[in-house]
Amino acid sequence: MLWKKIFGKSVATPASRLLAQRQFHSSAARSNDWFGSMTENKDNISKDLEKAKANKQQSEEDLEESRGKMPSFKNDSKLQEFIAQQKGESEVGIQKYGTGLKQQLWDAYQAQHNGYDKTKKVTLDGREYQMILSPNEIKAFEPSVYCKSYRIDGTWKKAQLLLRMLRKMNVHEAITQCQFSAKRMGRPVAELLQRGVSAAKDMNIDPEGLYIDEIWVGSDPRKFRFVDPKGRGRAGMKHAEYIHIRAILRTPVTQKREALEKEYKRQAKKPVFQHETRKVGDGYLKSDYRW
Predict the structure, then answer these.
(1) Nearest CA to 244 among 177, 171, 163, 179?
(2) Which residue has the higher pLDDT, 279 or 62?
(3) Which of the chain's ends, N or C, has fewer CB atoms near its CB within 10 Å?
């Protein structure tokens, strides 16, 4: 018999009944153990700790070895070949619209006149040249960055409201406007312009002077259809529209040339008079009504 005091009273309880009520472990080996697994095994803890330290040290050594063997993003030749294959051959505008002589003359204009001016001449190898280029040729020679977005869930009508505001705006100012815009289209446009700034750095173009020369939106041809349930057993079909955004970023060189062309156009206009200059005579001063 096992005696125990509960609430100041002595109560006799059989040992087998007491042990059956105070089981701390479900295993048969510890069924008669009052404390069960409440006390931790210090030997097992120390062994687990040593094993964890050894595994951590081994993983650090493996990481150091792999760093020397693993190539970086830029040094991985196979990865760079795959990226170039996915992008395809880059179409350089100078190769399409220009020639070797035009490239030399363009460089001569930049050196002698600080930019292209169709009204001036340049000297190259002891000879004078005056080069007149088409608008496509000028855009091909001037530095620019072409940006294109991914598929965007939206409509072109909503995108136009934001894109009209960004035209001819500095690229950093446009990114700030998009980030603080309440329109849902602001986030993808800001990401598009940020990728354009990164591409300009890779092309050795100063991103501080970049501005948005052209930006437009186009509808994606792929549209998804889904059911639009209505009342009384009827249903319609809805079309989920997707769009894409394109932009061309240019440098202050283009702004300077466009301002110069605008001034030349203003100077070429005829002077405006309030009254027409007509020849006196031939019945011009007659009092008869003419129609």
Answers:
(1) 163
(2) 62
(3) C
- Annotate 120-145 with DSSP letters as a single string: S-EEETTEEE-----HHHHHHHS-EE
Domain of residue 242 covers: 143-250
Residues in a beta bridge with 11: 4
The two three-digit tokens of residue 283, written as one number: 């019945």
Eight-class DSSP state of 27: S
Backbone angles phi, psi at 263, to 5 degrees: -70, -40
Q: Which two tokens stand for residue 14?
A: 């059989």
User: Which CATH number characterizes residue 220's domain?
Assistant: 3.90.470.10
Q: Are residues 172 and 241 in the same domain?
A: yes
DSSP string of 146-158, one letter each residue: EEE---EES-HHH
Tokens of 52: 């964890």
| DSSP tag of 208 | G
**36, 25 in Cβ contact below 8 A?**
yes
Give the amino acid at 238.
K
Kindly provide the b/e burial profile for residues 149-182, where b requires at least 16 CB atoms within 10 angstroms of the residue's own CB: beebebebeebeebbeebeebebbebbebbeebe
> Cα–Cα distance between 245 and 160 in angstroms, integer?
10
Give this prediction's pTM. 0.63
Is 210 exposed, middle or buried (CB count within 10 Å of its CB: 0-12, 13-18, 19+)? buried
Please tell me the predicted confidence (pLDDT) of residue 76.
81
pLDDT in tens, 170-202: 999 999 999 999 999 999 999 999 999 999 998
* 17 domain residue, yes or no: no
Helix (H, G, I), strand (E, B) or coil at 214: strand
